[in-house]
Design goal:
The complex is a heterodimer. Chain A is an alpha/beta fold. Chain A is built from 11 helices and 16 strands. Chain A has 2 domains: 159 residues, Rossmann fold, CATH 3.40.50; 175 residues, Rossmann fold, CATH 3.40.50.2300. In chain A, the strands form 3 sheets. Chain A has a 7-stranded parallel sheet with strand order 1-3-2-4-5-6-12, with helices on both faces. In chain B, 72% of the residues lie in helices and 0% in strands. The chains are: A alpha/beta, B mainly alpha.
């Protein structure tokens, strides 16, 4: 077992040499599976990329000498990522996980050139015979924290720090708002787009602005713990994103939505070892353990905790749905009648806000 | 509403301060005729050092001092390469940024996930509690006051002091300054070191006050904005202050207008504005006859090889 820590630059610089040295052992020990990971942020972001890296470490812990993992961090979405993915594919990796939405087209392109290499792309929608797509139903977690926000917000206004207006993010905003409105029908969510996945300074400015305008619940779809830290200092509450961020906000963090990729990564590596790997498109949630809720903070009220647990259990056993009708959009038009729940297709292409979202 | 406005202005000040500190340093560097594109790298070195030292020793003062020293160490490397070894300034500056990102991630790896108390705010009993003026003028931390004092200091230094005039002479015409006996390389070393000190201080402000934590690449491009700001301000200290508050103000206004639904302009357009202004200023400067009036140091970016 060994792990190669590359930054993108050293990786690209040394890749021609690596292609030779890394290519060699395959001839001797063909049973060793080489797994590559492409990350959009630094492993030290304490959020999204950190979560994927924990999955990588779980793969190493599980298979020991039978796998060799490589990761490349800080890979910009776009042409840079294509080079990185191609380098991994050409240096003898059997399975490559590309873990950001913007890696979708580069992954598909490289996959065509390397039909024997298996690819796994996170959060996208394009598959190929050797490309699988996997994603987590984060919105289920948002329904749980929305329930807590509805119970505990005094102003009835939440601040939402959002990255980019893609369906994934819109879905989260809507699920959070709908859940809060089940408790407090007048609940409002103010959304601020920072147009970045990762800019601690800007995320923190956005948080301050939202608190100044009356929000007393802070939640985010960006990757740094800065918003929670502001919430801690300003005496409001918030929720951790992608990782447990309690260290940054021991009082303010009521809970966190956790991504757990470990089991999925282990299963897929196992499938490559067995030769049973097939292209698939999966969207796992709390039921499969891909989305988890962190231990509740000490400031959470009993009522909020009980309600949150009820939602968590309901969604896990399938008796509840994060998008259950009736749902109205911002203009008050009915998007879903009572008694129905949104289909996966409708969710995956969501481009409208529910009533009560201010953006 | 008044409260929201005051709080908003306070946010603007803290968003502008790292830009102001880093840009002031770079201004002095550029006035001496050197272009150091490594501001981002030096800021990161300062941010990680300031945070690590503060966590380890418990003293923010020591953290700030070490952050400035770290920025200077990075700047010294740049100086050796470009001033003594005559390496290309643009390439070396870019390398310094990339080096700074990598080095700070490596040093900071053990400090991710630790939280510290932000720098204490100035709090004068009876004065800070005066509505509006109190928190606006007397409710900040020491680095914010320092940034304004430093603006005045740099302005005075460049305009009124003898060493400041020598520095400008070196930046305007290195050959002439050399021929009347000034040590061009030495002056430029001093300027470059000051640039590093200020970038380090800006980094310390980020990791100790603005967002009191360390995470990789936390400057997120502020070093580049500082560089743009120097051009935007046409190399004048008070305009740097104005520009920094304007850049900060537009950023915060952009965020606030989204939350409050004030006007219906896409947020992306608002985020573009400061850069559009910078490009405009740059275009005007490169138009020719305006150049001298707009203050660009004539020797900016040109290596100096003393004729023997």
């Amino acid at each position: 077992m060994s792990d190669f820590n590359f930054t993108r630059r050293t990786f690209l610089a040394g890749s021609s040499a690596a292609a030779v040295t890394l290519g060699a052992p395959l001839a001797f020990g063909a049973e060793q599976v080489k797994v590559g990971f492409v990350y959009v942020g630094p492993v030290g972001d304490h959020g999204w990329t950190h979560g994927h890296d924990l999955g990588r470490k779980a793969v190493e812990a599980k298979f020991g000498d039978k796998v060799k993992t490589t990761f490349v961090e800080n890979v910009a979405e776009g042409p840079d990522s294509e080079r990185v993915i191609r380098q991994l594919a050409s240096s003898g990796h059997n399975l490559i996980f590309t873990t950001s939405f913007g890696f979708m087209n580069p992954t598909i392109k490289v996959a065509k050139q390397f039909p024997k290499v298996k690819f796994e792309h996170a959060t996208g929608y394009k598959t190929a015979p050797n490309v699988s797509v996997y994603n987590a139903r984060f919105h289920q977690g948002r329904a749980v924290i929305g329930t807590i926000a509805g119970h505990m917000s005094k102003s009835g206004v939440a601040g939402y720090i959002a990255s980019f207006p893609i369906p994934e993010v819109v879905m989260g905003i809507n699920a959070f708002t709908l859940a809060a409105q089940k408790v407090n029908p007048d609940f409002k969510t103010k959304v601020v787009w920072v147009n970045s996945w990762y800019d601690p300074g800007k995320e923190s400015d956005a948080t301050k602005t939202l608190i100044d305008q009356g929000a007393d619940m802070i939640t985010q779809h960006t990757d740094s713990p800065a918003p929670l830290q502001v919430a801690e200092n300003r005496g409001v509450w918030g929720f951790g994103q992608a990782s447990d961020m309690k260290a940054y906000a021991p009082r303010a963090q009521l809970t966190a939505i956790l991504d757990d990729w470990s089991e999925y990564y282990i299963n897929r590596v196992q499938a490559v070892m067995d030769g049973s790997w097939k292209s698939q498109n999966i969207w796992y949630g709390m039921k499969e353990g891909m989305v988890k809720i962190a231990p509740y903070g000490s400031e959470i009220t009993d009522a909020a905790k009980a309600a949150a647990e009820k939602v968590r259990k309901g969604i896990t056993d399938g008796s509840m749905h994060a998008f259950a009708g009736p749902i109205k959009n911002q203009e008050g038009k009915e998007m879903l009648p009572a008694g129905q729940s949104l289909t996966d297709d409708k969710m995956a292409t969501m481009d409208w806000y529910v009533q009560g979202v201010q953006s | 509403m008044n409260d929201a406005l005051v709080l908003g202005l306070i946010t603007v000040v803290s968003a502008a301060t790292p830009l102001l500190l880093a840009a002031l340093g770079e201004l002095v560097v550029e006035r001496s005729g050197v272009l150091n594109l490594g501001v981002e790298g030096m800021m990161l070195a300062g941010a990680v050092t300031g945070f690590a030292v503060t966590v380890t020793t418990g003293s923010a003062t020591l953290g700030i001092i070490c952050a400035m020293a770290a920025g200077m160490a990075m700047a010294f490397t740049f100086g050796v390469l470009t001033l003594s070894l005559m390496a290309n300034q643009v390439a070396t500056g870019l390398a310094l940024t990339i080096f700074g990102i990598g080095l700070s991630s490596l040093v900071g790896a053990g400090f991710v996930g630790i939280a510290i108390e932000p720098l204490p705010k100035l709090n004068i009993p009876g004065i800070t509690t005066i509505p509006v003026i109190g928190p606006l003028l007397f409710g900040h931390d020491i680095l914010i006051y320092a940034s304004i004092a430093l603006t005045g200091g740099v302005a005075w230094f460049l305009k009124r002091s003898r060493p400041g005039m020598i520095l400008r002479a070196v930046g305007e015409s290195d050959e002439s300054a050399h021929s009347i006996g000034y040590d061009v390389i030495r002056v430029r070393y001093m300027a470059v070191l000051f640039g590093g000190l200020m970038a380090g201080l800006a980094g310390a402000f980020l990791s100790l006050s603005y967002t009191p934590l360390w995470i990789e690449n936390m400057t997120a491009g502020r070093g580049w904005i500082a560089l743009a700001l120097v051009v935007f301000a046409t190399w004048r200290p008070w305009r740097v202050l104005f520009g920094a508050y304007l850049f900060g103000g537009v950023t915060i206004l952009q965020l606030a207008s989204q939350a409050a639904d004030w006007f219906d302009v896409p947020s992306q357009v608002m985020s573009m504005l400061p850069y559009v202004a910078t490009i405009l200023v740059l275009t005007i400067i490169s138009a020719g006859p305006w150049r001298t009036r707009l203050n660009a140091p004539a020797c900016l970016g040109k290596p100096f090889r003393p004729a023997s």
